[in-house]
Write a structure and sequence with these properties.
With 352 residues, the protein is α+β, with helices and mostly antiparallel strands. It has 4 helices and 13 strands. The strands form 3 sheets. The chain has a 6-stranded antiparallel beta barrel with strand order 8-9-10-13-12-11.
């Protein structure tokens, strides 16, 4: 049976790798679709030689990679179902009790719900990927806007009136520049992004928008809109964390769905033991499980939005346990804030 468990673990790792490949291919496809569409919609966008053909090639390649990954995931799932059907789960679970449900809890439905949790996590990953793609395209448009102003704007002489060097974290370095547009004298703040050290009274070349003279930059300084950049960077950073976290969650729930479908549920009593003092970051709560036959096992909750800490107030809580090894689930009749059954992903720290 050890060979079967090793095979199941290998298939699980391969599925995670293909899932990440699928997500990466889809993300690249979405980013290039949005970017190429914006570029084509912008009159006079300066495509470099071969750039459009290269973009089309990336789109075709990412689409093919995504399709290949989806196919390999389906093939791997069929192999995993065959392997799991032959495994012995007694190191983690007592013999089957023949129950399909108890009381008001439909245990078969709860197994299907584990698959729904995985699909929901994958949809959330796609939404985060969309946010990431939108932010990347938005930052590209901000950069293009500055380049477009340099290429099409009117030029005039300007004088640096004041140089601003804020302390760390207090904003971007900038300078206030006075310049003349017709009979009107304007003084605007120009954000600095080069290493040039300006001095008050230094002359610079100002490039401004003829329709909006207050929209200006210098030849050297791009003066990108810091509000737009800040508005895009924050969700970009959140998306960079949200995409992998959601993908790992999707892969974990899919793996636990297959495991519990193979093992079924076992009635148990569980006690959640947080790693106090809380929030020291050592590890997630332990879950002490006692089965009806007198055996027990110690699990540890996996990192998830379906955490176990909220269940700590009631020891020897009635529950059901399913899965094996690193793919186990503890199902309690209801969570702290929900009336229906609450599933906690976990992995085994010991055997029975």
């Amino acid at each position: 049976m050890d060979l079967g468990r090793d095979a199941a673990r290998r298939l699980s790792r391969r599925r995670l790798a293909w899932l990440l490949t699928e997500a990466l291919g889809a993300l690249v496809f979405v980013v290039f679709v949005i970017g190429t569409a914006f570029s084509l919609a912008e009159p006079g966008y300066p495509f470099e030689d071969g750039e459009l053909a290269a973009d089309i090639g990336v789109l075709a390649g990412s689409a093919a990679l995504t399709a290949l990954a989806a196919l390999r995931i389906r093939v791997g799932d069929r192999r995993a179902a065959t392997v799991l059907a032959r495994l012995d789960f007694e190191p983690w679970l007592p013999p089957r009790e023949g129950l399909n449900g108890e009381g008001r809890v439909d245990l078969d439905r709860e197994i299907r719900r584990l698959r729904s949790l995985g699909r929901r996590a994958f949809v959330i990953a796609l939404l985060w990927a969309g946010v990431l793609a939108g932010c990347i395209v938005g930052l590209d448009l901000v950069e293009y806007s500055a380049d477009d102003l340099l290429a099409t704007g009117a030029r005039t002489g300007g004088v640096v009136e004041r140089v601003v060097d804020p302390r760390s974290g207090d904003g971007a370095p900038s300078m206030w520049v006075r310049y003349q547009v017709g009979d009107t004298a304007l003084t605007e703040e120009i954000v600095r992004d080069t290493d040039h050290r300006y001095r008050p009274g230094e002359e610079v070349t100002v490039v401004y928008d003829r329709d909006d003279p207050a929209d200006a930059r210098t030849v050297e300084e791009r003066n990108e809109n810091q509000y737009s950049v800040g508005f895009l960077v924050v969700p970009l950073l959140l998306a960079l964390a949200g995409v992998p976290f959601s993908l790992v969650a999707a892969a974990g729930w899919a793996r636990r769905y297959r495991a519990v479908r193979a093992t079924g549920w076992r009635i148990a009593s569980v006690t959640v033991v947080p790693d106090y003092p809380v929030r020291q970051g050592r590890h997630a709560p332990d879950i002490h499980v006692g089965y009806r036959d007198g055996s027990g096992i110690r699990l540890r909750a996996a990192s998830s939005t379906h955490g176990a800490t909220s269940l700590k107030d009631r020891p020897d809580r009635r529950a059901w346990v399913g899965g094996w090894g690193s793919a186990m689930v503890v199902l309690v009749p209801h969570g702290r804030w929900r009336k229906g059954p609450y599933a906690v992903p976990a992995f085994a720290k010991t055997t029975r």
